[in-house]
Amino acid sequence: MKARTVLFAFGLIGIITCVTVAQEPQQTKTKTIHGKLQGYDGARGIIRVSKGSGNLTFLVAKDVKLTINDEPTNKKLADIELDTHLELALSSDKSSVIAINAEGPEVKRTVESVDLDKRIIKVRLGKTVDEFMLDPQVVITRMKKEVKLDEIKPGMAINIQLTLDKTKVMSIVIATIQPK
Q1: What is the pLDDT of residues 164-179, one digit of tens each?
Q2: Per-residue pLDDT for 31 more than 60?
Q3: Which listed CATH number (3.40.50.300, 3.40.50.150, 3.40.525.10, 2.40.50.320) goes with 106-174?
Q4: What's the per-residue H, E or C state across the chain?
Q5: Digit-coded pLDDT (tens) for 37-59
Q6: Start and end residues for every CATH 2.40.50.320 domain found in the chain
Q7: pTM here?
Q8: Architecture of domain 32-103
Q9: Given a cut of 70, is residue 9 above it in pLDDT?
């Protein structure tokens, strides 16, 4: 906390007192942009991301902080594949990117099976069945409320957030409308 000194004068005889008033530090909100990586030019320090139907281009700060799935990494921005989901934190004047979080894709699938002991989920899209390990801290929600893994049943429609390397499930959202 910062402190501010305020002077008060009382009466005609000139009594002056000094009071220290505590102030909360000003919080600056960081503007964030979500998009998919479309290109990075390390020599020029420029990143291009797609958002909606358009592209946005930003300068990248020399000391940009890169994380993957909100975890520190030794990877460089040049190592991140095109079309990777990114969350960009912009400087207070919105002129440059100061932090980047790379995330794996979010995919919609239908549950084939869940192995509670091995923490493995099998999901289907069309005729293709994929198997994923569940991250130890996987978050599972239904209607914005956290639920347990055993509530996921075969045939359920789900959205899963994968790690960047597409080997583990970070989160699962059970669709509110289920197939019949």
Answers
A1: 888 899 999 998 877 7
A2: yes
A3: 2.40.50.320
A4: CEEEEEEEEECCCCEEEEEEEEECCCCCCCCEEEEEEEEEECCCCEEEEEECCEEEEEEEEEEEEEEECCEECCCCHHHCCCCCEEEEEECCCCCEEEEEEEECCEEEEEEEEEECCCCEEEEEECCEEEEEEEEEEEEEEECCEECCHHHCCCCCEEEEEECCCCCEEEEEEECCCCCC
A5: 999 999 999 999 999 889 999 99
A6: 32-103, 106-174
A7: 0.66
A8: Beta Barrel (2.40)
A9: no
